[in-house]
Amino acid sequence: MDRIDRHILATLQHDGRISTADLAEKVGLSPSPCARRLKRLEDDGFIQHYQANLEKEKVGINMTFFVEIGLNRHQEDTIESFESALLEMPEVINAHVVSGSFDYLLEVVSPNLQGYEAFTNKLHKLSSVKDIHTHLSVRQLATKRVLPVYL
């Protein structure tokens, strides 16, 4: 990965709908070499997929919660079952396995408190869940949807 590849990745994070011709101009290449680099970056897994970032409130999401989950068992089958269940819950928009006093940190969205209560009811039904601690996001300071490219 060189300076041009990093520039391509940074540009795409700001505007995923940019045409190849405009991208090529921004990074100082002609369209054909730029298209080849872009294809290579996709094939090599640097670009996972393209998506639209939606404004939460405009699609009815008014609340964000950070949820700490502790499991009661740490056997492979328990972990696989819990993680499979999480992947089926659309309210979970980010999930991390973490170290420390709990096992998972989830970012959960909901239109309201009733929606969040319904979500926690689903969690309580999972036999592997021991502890649930919830933090309500009062206000989001910033969204950094652009990743720094260190390579």
From TrEMBL:
Residues 1-62 form the HTH asnC-type domain. Keywords: DNA-binding, Transcription, Transcription regulation. Signal peptide: none annotated. Coiled coil: none annotated. InterPro entries: ArsR-like_HTH (IPR011991), AsnC-type_HTH_dom (IPR000485), Dimeric_a/b-barrel (IPR011008), Tscrpt_reg_AsnC-like (IPR019888), Tscrpt_reg_AsnC/Lrp_C (IPR019887), Tscrpt_reg_HTH_AsnC-type_CS (IPR019885), WH-like_DNA-bd_sf (IPR036388), WH_DNA-bd_sf (IPR036390). The keyword Lipid biosynthesis does not apply. Pfam families: AsnC_trans_reg (PF01037), HTH_24 (PF13412). This is Lrp/AsnC family transcriptional regulator.
